[in-house]
Amino acid sequence: MGRPPCCDKVGVKKGPWTPEEDLMLVSYVQEHGPGNWRAVPTNTGLMRCSKSCRLRWTNYLRPGIKRGNFTDQEEKLIIHLQALLGNRWAAIASYLPERTDNDIKNYWNTHLKKKLKKMQAGEGDGGEDGGAGASEAGAGAAAGGGGKRPSVPKGQWERRLQTDIHTARQALRDALSLEPSSAPLAKLAAAPQPTPPGSTTYASSAENIARLLEGWLRPGPGGSGGGGKGPEASGSTSTTATTQQRPQCSGEGAASASASHSSGAAANTAAQTPECSTETSKVAAAAGSAPAFSMLESWLLDDGMGHGEVGLMTDVVPLGDPSEFF
DNA sequence: AACTGACCCAACCGCAGGTAG
DNA sequence: ACTACCTGCGGTTGGGTCAGT
C-alpha cells in the first residue's frame, strides 16, 4: 500500500528555516544527539516534519560541514567518483566528509555537468552526455548495476559494495595522481585555499546560528523580512561569511564564536556536541581538514593496494586521462 | 535605474531499504 | 512472516541573487 505521508500536510511549516528554528533544532540535537527525528518536532515544538528537521541538520547545521567553493581537487574527485559510482551522491559524499550529498549533487548539476558537456562539445560531438551521462550508465556497469540503485539480489550486494569501494579508491588514486606536485589531498587540504576570504567556511552549528541570529536580529538593508533564505541564510554562510577555519569540536572554537554573539544556547550546546564524539571522525575532519583527508587518503591508498583485493581493482576500467577534463 | 534571464542553493517530494513489534 | 514505522537517498523545484542589456 502507499506509504502515509511522513507528516501531516496541515500545520507543518515549510520553506526556509528561521534562525530561531535552527536554534531549537541545534539545541535539541546537542542534547539528545541526532537520530529519532520523529520525536524532534514534538519535543522541540518545531512545526516542521521530521524529515525536514533531519535534512536541515545534515545539510546545514551539522558541525563539520564545509561550505563554499569546491577546490580543483574536490572537483576532480567528484567527477571521477560520479563516473564510477553514478549519481550515488551519498556514496560520493562519503569520500568528501566535509561535503553533504546535497551540496555535491547541486555542484554536479550546476557546474560539473555543464563543464563536462562543454568539454565534450569541445572534443567533438561525442555521444550526448558523453563523459557525464554516458559514464552514468557506464558507471552503473562498472559498479555492477545501474546508475540508480538497481535491485540487486542480496547475495550480490556485498560484492557490489566491495566493487564500489574499489572503484572509488581507484578514482581517488587517479585524482591524486593528477596533482603534478604529487601533493596528496592532505597537503591540499592543509594549505590555505587561494579562494577569496570567506568563500570557504567550516561551519559549526554554533557559528551558523550565531551568524544567522546576527543577521536576523539586525535587519539588514532592504528589510530582511525574515526569511532564512535571505542574505543571512545563504549569503552569510556561503559567500559573505568571514573565514573561520577553526576546529569544530574542540569546544573552544564554537564556544568562542557564539560567545561573542551572546547566543548562550548555541554557545553551550555546540560546545558539547555529541556529534563530536560519535559521528565524527568526520567532524574531526572538519576540525582540521588535513587529518581527515590524510586519513582518508591513507586508508584508500594503503588498503586495497596491499591486499589481494587488487584483483578486483584490475577489473575496473579507469577513465581516460582525467586531465582531459581540464 | 529598470528589466530580464540565468544561475545557484536550500528545501521539498516520493521511493526504497532497514528494522522493531 | 507480516506490518508499520523510521530513516536515507536521489530527483526536482521554488525563489533569491547576480549579471547582462
UniProtKB/TrEMBL annotation:
It comes from the Eukaryota. Residues 231-243, 250-271 have a biased composition (Low complexity). PROSITE patterns: HTH_MYB (PS51294), MYB_LIKE (PS50090). GO terms for molecular function: DNA-binding transcription factor activity; transcription cis-regulatory region binding. One of its GO terms (cellular component) is nucleus. Gene3D superfamilies: Homeodomain-like (1.10.10.60). Pfam families: Myb_DNA-binding. Residues 119-155, 215-282 are annotated as: Disordered. The keyword Transcription applies. CDD domains: SANT. Keywords: DNA-binding, Nucleus, Repeat, Transcription, Transcription regulation. One of its GO terms (biological process) is response to auxin. It is found in: Nucleus. Residues 9-65, 66-116 form the HTH myb-type domain. Residues 9-61, 62-112 form the Myb-like domain. Residues 220-230 have a biased composition (Gly residues). InterPro entries: Homeodomain-like_sf, Myb_dom, Myb_TF_plants, SANT/Myb. The keyword NADP does not apply. Residues 272-281 have a biased composition (Polar residues). This is Uncharacterized protein.
